[in-house]
Amino acid sequence: MSLFTGSYSIRQINPLEKVKFKYVQWLSLAIGLVCLMLGFTRIAKYSFFSIRVWGFLILGIISLLIWLKISWSDTAALISPQLFKNLRFSMQLIAYCFAKIATLALGFIFPIYV
């Protein structure tokens, strides 16, 4: 029902344009974030100074630097790094991340105490 209602009431204002997908940006961003996540999660299993931890962390940082170098000069980047120059946006993003971490932590701790 909502599909029919939406297709009837929502109109396309701007003309559609074909956009090329940025595979290199997507791949470097994905590799960077996954490697950072794996590096931080392996700290619990291995020593912080282990090559298994630092290998993933260094690979993640290098991949994110590659993404930053590619995206900085691109006018139609996948995610524009110029967003992070805005202090208000960066602070709100940090506050949002802390709120999500707190919500996740309470989701684990609260049932244990109940």
Task: Give a topology summary.
Layout lengths: L1 H8 L13 H19 L9 H22 L14 H27 L1
Structure explained in plain terms:
With 114 residues, the chain is an all-alpha fold. 67% of the residues lie in helices and 0% in strands. Helix 2 runs antiparallel to helix 3.
Name its key features.
114 residues; mainly alpha; 4 helices; extended
Strand-and-helix sequence, N→C? HHHH
Shape: extended
Structural class of the secondary structure composition?
Answer: mainly alpha
Number of domains: 2
Q: For the report, how would you describe the main beta sheet?
A: none
Helix proportion of residues, in percent?
A: 55-70%
**Count of DSSP helices?**
4
The whole-number mean of residue pLDDT values reads 88
Task: Please give the number of β-strands.
Answer: 0
Poorly predicted regions are none
Question: How big a fraction of the residues is strand?
Answer: under 5%
* Euclidean distance between termini CA atoms: 41 Å
Radius of gyration: 20 Å
Give a quick precis of the structure.
Helices cover 67% and strands 0% of the residues. It has 114 residues and is an all-alpha fold. It folds into 2 domains: 19-79; 83-114.
